[in-house]
């Protein structure tokens, strides 16, 4: 029969001693298992390839730093700010000629807590790949960042480039008002708005300015690389959700479109575009009643088209852009509410009878003005009258004829 050992301590000691390696193996395999789990989670989240996962596996650093910008900040810091990028333009772009008296441009970057290396690469790519005589200046609008490196360190770094100016907003204003602040002091004839996590490709600027030169009411956008290959254009779906869609086949055939031809674009993505400065202000810039971010691309797109302008994507102008899984910026107020409120303003001013379609697609609660105050619209409605802008029906018929827009008279939710 089994009897309890007299000296528990020795047994305990021996057991622990011999089992220690076993414990360690269990411990490390657990750690490895957890890392793998994280890896697959990342793959699931980011939908990236397995190699990226292995990198993550090897360098925990990546994980640690991901949240600084919601992308691979670790990798970004390894890449030189002046790196060469492959010329991704359609082949014939290099032979295109532009006028030699193109207007000058001010490039405006707005940022909040942008990653150091990414911001620098954005600025360097503009400095390196824009003809000096066309680049009046670069304005960096710091929308009240909290990161220390974006203060004196940034001032000092940028002081070596006389063309770069930094404007600092005392309070967080959001993208829309930050851009207006930059535009207000710009000296170039054309405003070029860019995100602060981009890389301009060779010859990116000239084709944009050429379009404005040909017609000051043209608002050209570069191809945003990664998301939209050639022949994609920006569109919207109800309730004013931005998306990408190919140019319809019959339009390509009818106009005999080449890969280098500008693409008429019902809605711009909003991040990257050039616009004649005077024209921008003639259009009333952005509706100053819009908050922070969201809906401003719809507003300016409808305004441009309906009030006599045009939005185009220029296949020969290419700018790379880092797409992030989520927007890393904090909204001063509730994000959802801010965007909804902005969109309601846009709908009220620009959509005419079609605003019912907007509200009908899940935004009925916005009709209750007691719940959501969308602010005063008098100025915006006056502006639309003053500019003699066309109707939203005209826009749909002429700019976006392939959009399905049944005007519903019946009350209730629209399905599908
Ligand atoms: Mn962006």
Automatic annotation (TrEMBL):
Its main location: membrane. GO terms for molecular function: polypeptide N-acetylgalactosaminyltransferase activity. GO terms for biological process: protein O-linked glycosylation. It is a single-pass membrane protein; Single-pass type II membrane protein. Keywords: Disulfide bond, Manganese, Membrane, Signal-anchor, Transmembrane, Transmembrane helix. The chain crosses the membrane at residues 12-38. The keyword Calcium does not apply. Pfam families: Glycos_transf_2 (PF00535). Belongs to the glycosyltransferase 2 family. GalNAc-T subfamily. PANTHER family: N-ACETYLGALACTOSAMINYLTRANSFERASE, POLYPEPTIDE N-ACETYLGALACTOSAMINYLTRANSFERASE 5. This is Polypeptide N-acetylgalactosaminyltransferase 5. It comes from Xiphophorus couchianus (Monterrey platyfish).
